[in-house]
Write a structure and sequence with these properties.
two-stranded antiparallel ribbon
């Protein structure tokens, strides 16, 4: 807020620029990022209370822990949570990193029941919060606070350096944009009618989600992927009076505005801008802040250091996402760190680098869809007289790729 000559003016004082001002080589980018990460972690180690780190087993938290080790943190306490579902459990990778750096490692296996923790979650969030990962975040904060008061984490690495699968999916979609529009629209229709898998994040669910918006522009695709409640679904499950009071702005348009108003020169950086402006401050940071503050734990995020965010935004997108490799520049750093043992390094690379098996299956799945999709069309019939039944039915009809996410959001709203 600026007060001058008796007038008040409110304007944004800082914003990220994605104009790709960096002109060096990728090797120079790696060196600068490593130096800035080291400095960001160093200043976040200043504490007069016990300090540790969240360790998920992914590349972001693993690099943070490795640099804490290099900076002489001792004892280095690390904390991880695991899940009974194998596809979500990365404890084995976290253990490899913890063993390599001889950390005082603590693990907690989570099998939470939302109903048991819901009153506490509602009290601390104090607003509808539809991200179900808030539940394990509370468990992790509770475990960590038993040992330390400050914990470093890897939040922001994905948003700064293109680490989510949806970025990669939009790259594939961009290639598909060269197909005739009638073919893309036909594939979208096929995707809409494909059978619903039990899990949205397994390959069939990802293929369905991808094909359903293949006929759209990169911005529209991304806006739809990030919107749990589409405008068409809200029109069908909400009364006119409710929509009039709540505002009838399209959910997708909120995302699309950030996408289109970015100064990014390509769609990859435009997606990063969307997440930095919406998903990061509106979901992830809220989730971690509320969970950690509930137990008197302070979370610190080196990847959200202003200098690091500005540097990552200045990098051309091909240094962040190239072909099948996400977070390329950071993965090159982790591969070249000579204090990481070969076993630990290969474990990190196995789940974070390569054209991974998961990502390569995308291409195979696309080919299979082209050949066999016409034989997989399914139509659902439903009858939902009550509001609750109507919502649950329409979730599976109108948003078939994300029924569990939306069901949890409806539960939170109630």
């Amino acid at each position: 807020m600026i007060v001058q000559d008796g007038k008040i003016k409110v304007e944004q004082y800082w914003r990220l620029s994605y104009e790709n001002s960096f002109v060096g080589t990728i090797e120079e980018a790696e060196q600068q990022l490593l130096e800035q990460l080291t400095e960001a972690i160093k200043i976040r180690l200043v504490s007069d209370v016990p300090l540790g780190a969240f360790l998920s087993g992914g590349i972001d938290s693993s690099v943070v822990v490795s640099l804490m080790f290099q900076l002489g943190v001792s004892p280095l306490k690390t904390f991880s949570i695991g899940f009974e579902q194998a596809e979500y459990n990365e404890l084995s990778y976290a253990r490899l990193v913890a063993n390599r750096f001889e950390t005082d490692h603590h693990e907690f296996m989570v099998n939470p029941r939302a109903t048991e923790n819901f009153p506490k979650l509602v009290w601390h969030y104090n607003e509808p919060f539809g991200d179900s990962s808030g539940i394990p975040s509370f468990y992790l904060a509770q475990l960590t606070r038993q040992h330390v008061t400050v914990a470093l984490n890897g939040d922001g690495g994905d948003e700064n350096l293109a680490g989510y699968d949806r970025y990669f999916a939009n790259v594939i979609g961009n290639y598909c944009d060269h197909l005739p529009s009638i073919l893309r629209r036909g594939l979208s229709l096929i995707g809409y009618f494909l059978p619903e898998p039990r899990e949205a994040k397994v390959l069939p669910g990802r293929v369905k989600k991808f094909l359903s918006v293949l006929g759209e522009t990169p911005g529209n695709r991304y806006a739809w992927w990030l919107s749990q409640f589409s405008s068409s679904l809200k029109q069908r499950v909400c009364t006119r009076d409710f929509l009039r009071e709540a505002g009838e702005e399209k959910s997708e348009q909120i995302i699309l505005d950030f996408y289109e108003n970015s100064d990014a020169i390509d769609f990859i950086d435009a997606m990063l801008n969307v997440d930095v402006k919406t998903y990061l401050p509106g979901d992830l940071l809220v989730k971690v802040d509320r969970a950690t503050m509930a137990y008197g734990l302070e979370a610190r995020s080196p990847f959200l250091d202003q200098n690091i965010m500005e540097f990552c935004a200045s990098l051309p997108s091909h240094m962040k996402l190239r072909n099948c490799v996400k977070k390329l520049v950071l993965k090159n750093i982790s591969h070249n760190l000579n204090w990481i043992s070969s076993t630990c390094r290969m474990a990190i690379i196995e789940i974070n680098t390569n054209p991974s098996k998961k990502e390569l299956r995308w291409f195979g799945a696309m080919l299979v869809v082209f050949v066999f999709a016409l034989g997989t069309l399914v139509w659902w019939q439903f009858d939902a007289p009550t509001a609750a039944q109507r919502i649950l039915s329409l979730i599976h009809i109108s948003e078939p790729t994300r029924p569990r996410l939306i069901s949890y959001a409806v539960f939170c709203l109630k």
